[in-house]
Model the fold of this input.
Amino acid sequence: MTEANTSQADVKTSDLRVEGLTKLYGKQEVGCIDVELTIADGEFFTIVGPSGSGKTTLMRMMAGMLRPTAGKVLLGETDITTLAPQVRPTAMVFQHLALFPHRTVGQNIAFPLKVRGVAKAERRTTAFEMLELLRLPAVFIDKPVTDCSGGERQRVAIARALAYEPQILLFDEPLSAIDYQLRKVLQRELKQIHQRTGRTFIYVTHSLEEALVMSDRIAIMNEGSVAQVGSPEDIYHRPAQRMIAEFMGAANVWEATPTPGGGLRCPEIGQDISFTGTKVEDGYFMLRPEQLAIVDPTSPTLPNSVTGTISTRYIMGSRVHYLIDVGDTVVTVEELVAAHNANEGDTVTVGWSDSSGWSLPK
Amino acid sequence: MTATHDKERLDELAAQEPRIRFWRNPGGWWSLPIVVLLGVGFAGPLLIVLIFSFMPAGAFDISAQFTLDNYQSITRLSFDRSYITSLRLALITTLICLVISYPIAYALVKTLRPRAANIVTALIVTPLLVSENTRLFGWNLILSKRGILDGTSQSLLSTELPTMLFNEKAIILGMVYIYVPFMLFPLVIGLSTVPDEVIEAARDLGATRWQVLHEVEAPLAKPGIVIGGMLTFVLSLGAISEAQILGGNAVITITKDIDRVFGFQQNWPFGSALSVVLVMITSLIAYFSMSRINLDEVIGGGA
Done:
């Protein structure tokens, strides 16, 4: 018992490291290739990528459900690459939740304890604790899991994974099948559960929005490799590649190259712009739509501006998107609906500050 | 939904729902051939057997002299022993079929690639194209004195093997051999309804292979297991060729008794009574197995 406690205390502070992790399916198909990641203890880490980018492959190797072709998975100093899932301190919340349909909510939650040989009374106590932690009513303990709603099942699946007392919880797109309203609620809840439990959460999703809302750090995957790792802020405002800039929501991306005067030359909008940030030779300049605003063309207050005709205007709740034809390119601008009342066909001037935007390589 | 709507208006609308008269319903007409066939070929003979079982022993026609003598004779003449033998053999056969079929079904559903699974399925199905009796005589040739096994052993090892025919083991072997597909295919269907993710989740949460089997796989595949078990049991209970070809006169099953009473003794009413009891046993087993799977789907398994 003492030994078990100390070993648990040891690994409590350990990070999950992935070194040169590779999975090839057959000789040609790449699942993951040479992935290097360090995920800190207690972090909410999200792996984002389009389908087929290798994110689920990577997670299944972390869970021990898939044997890597090459590379290592380390927990602290311990190599767990070949450790079977049932002895690995990770628990997964599956895409389709994988609840046991023939069991009650309580039996589902207490399953990890049952297979470990914990007595029934104690299992029930833990199940009640988990229900409370997940803010589910205590009476749910004897409810058949098949009678639960989508959101309730979601919480039961998380409770069951937590009952395993894993150091690391793995989430394989568990919210993808849930409708928009409930997904929003569950995202917030998941973040709160993360804060309450203090465990490491590793979350796989194809949704930028989900990643931005919940994560401490995000890894972007594409074609089996990690393209960028950083905070949501980093990824959103300082993407390392054009692919990431565009994957992470709407973006204006123009070819740009530094001018001797200290600005950037953007042929697509037909002018040089001033930009105070670090400039990359022969790359792109990215501007998020909300960094632009409609300005008065007679007395510009912002150092940069372009003029064009609004081709499309669409409302997104309290905000409005304008697609503006500027030369041969389209500039997207996002504003509060109340900010200006511009209509399709109007000619407007939009401006932005010289500290806004990001210069990135090709 | 209904609560927010005007009840009277709903009734009024419901009355306007177009009705299809039953003679206009094509379903009724299309099912007519099978209804006639089952009525004449299945229900009719059963009814005659039921009536005959209440006729005086040895009667060859139906009269108004109803009697329970035939049923009383079953225990008086110790025919209950044959029922016990048949039930025991059927139970053993069913259990052996389950143990053999489960790994094969698991492999077919969860591990083999589709091409390999097709080959295995073909290997299991092909023998079904040969008549049951022919295959059983094949076993007779293998097991009999101076048969293939004994002959091989004598010429290669100069050892004479004891006779392997005409005992319960031979009958069980024959029944397992014949009825394995009837267990296997329901199991395949049962196991294919168990999602891989659920098995993976159980493993991930610390369950051993054995715990996955009895906590998750078996309960979820239960409809398949129950149906397979029921088919195998009921077929084994009614089997006669196995007992005749491989059991000889050494083992008396109830089916052999029925055959003898009808054929050799020409006592139709008594044979009918024996048959009715067998049909009742079979029906009860079928009824309870079917209600069990429904019940479990509704209330879920125990703790």
Notes: DSSP finds 15 helices and no strands in chain B. Confidence is low (pLDDT under 50) at residues 297-303 of chain B.
